[in-house]
Amino acid sequence: MCFSGAQTIHNPIKISKEEIPHKLFKGDIVDGLKWNDKEGSHIIIVVQYKKGKSFEKGWISELYAHKFTVVADSFKQDWKIQEFTPANQAEVRYIDSTLVLFDVNNDSIAESRFFYAFNIDGLEPLQIKDMFHFRNTKLAIRGKVPIEIDPSEIDSSGYEKQMDKAFDTVPQNIRDFASKDWDTFVHKKFDIFRKN
Asked: What is the pTM of this model?
């Protein structure tokens, strides 16, 4: 999705794990993009690492994301995200197809975002996190989304949204864009605001 005043980065290409030296990441690549912008050639990968059986003793669930600037065959890491869950208590998982590039300021430099979620023993509400990057500055939005099996029981009162203080350090249009992007995603993905 792309909002008024922002452009998507032209021709980002999906990548596979064969294109990235395995020594640079831990786990399995679940999404990745490569692109060129004014600052060079770049790659983002989102990686999940799991070990053991879900929620049993020894269960490990981790999520990583890396951004690299690529020069020739050299990979320079610009940033890294790592998320660990409490032992045996949760699963962290990437929300499919949410890795997207934008050019919010129309300055030919890409911003990126992706979403992931925490499943705490299958209990409600679902905890989700939006990782937005502006010029390699990490900006997070966190929230809770009620999920009901019976649509007649959907209740938006448990919904939460919290933007990190780091958003105070970036231009207002970046903050506004990220906030609207979150709202659009939540309304589209989770039917918590539907009128009964």
From this structure: 0.87
